[in-house]
Specification:
The protein is mostly helical. It has helices at about 5-10, 10-20, 25-55, 60-90, 95-105, 105-130, 135-160. It has one domain (about 25-160). It has 7 helices and no strands. α4 (about 60-90) runs antiparallel to α6. The longest helix has about 30 residues, at about 25-55. The protein is elongated, with a radius of gyration of 19 Å. Residues about 5-20 have low confidence and may be disordered.
């Protein structure tokens, strides 16, 4: 059975890393704009979901974990929005060199990682949310959230 380190020995793995760095500024700006808009929407949803759970006064350990995931999701999406805005500004053709240098690599990494973290924590919060109501609702939300996590993982791994 191949181990995790086997994927690092493949030339295709290194080629994919090189390809990640070779994106044109126009393409990178378009991706950052899309991720920024999607992050703003999902962050608003996560914050609303959090507010609803707090307003309803859900109790219990599972509800507390779901609330914690909703908070992490909101924060992660806010970071993704700020990072994508920074990246769009840095990739603009008329951006000053200081802006381009300050926001290039770090903004891209923060945008990507916080967007993915936001997706996983939002889906986890949704998956756990039903357990505060009933076992049947908990099973339904867990299956739906788990399926979402699997699909997002397949898309993220396939895109890499």
């Amino acid at each position: 059975m191949p181990g995790l380190t086997d994927s690092f020995a493949r030339p295709a793995f290194y080629a994919s890393l090189a390809c990640m760095n070779a994106l044109s500024p126009a393409y990178l700006s378009a991706i950052a704009s899309q991720l920024g808009a999607l992050s703003a929407f999902l962050g608003g949803f996560a914050a609303t979901f959090l507010g609803t759970m707090l307003a309803l006064g859900v109790r219990g350990k599972t509800a507390s974990v779901a609330i914690g995931f909703a908070v992490c999701s909101s924060v992660a999406f806010i970071v993704a929005v700020v990072a994508s805005t920074s990246l769009v500004a840095a990739t603009h053709p008329q951006a000053p060199a200081s802006v381009q240098a300050a926001a290039s690599g770090g903004a891209r990494a923060f945008m990507t990682l916080s967007f993915i973290l936001g997706l996983y924590t939002l889906l986890s919060s949704l998956a756990l949310s039903g357990w505060s109501r009933s076992r049947g609702t908990g099973l339904t939300t867990s299956i739906a959230g788990g399926l979402g996590i699997v699909l997002v993982t397949l898309l993220v791994v396939g895109a890499g």
